[in-house]
Task: structure prediction
Amino acid sequence: MKAKTFAQASHQWSCYVQDNMGSVMNEHSYPFEELSEEKKTVWILKNNFGVLCVIDKETGEVVT
Result:
């Protein structure tokens, strides 16, 4: 799934966390749109604690 919007990128991040870490998240662990950055090819998802991950806009995959 592509991640052209913040909502899509945030959803991809949530799926990644659940699939790879199996952890339950609370509202404070989710990325905030006002802190996250949209770049040309990626979303940099952030919250008050810093960068959570980078999501490729074309593939929706977490960039490592």
Summary: DSSP finds one helix and four strands in the chain. The radius of gyration is 11 Å.
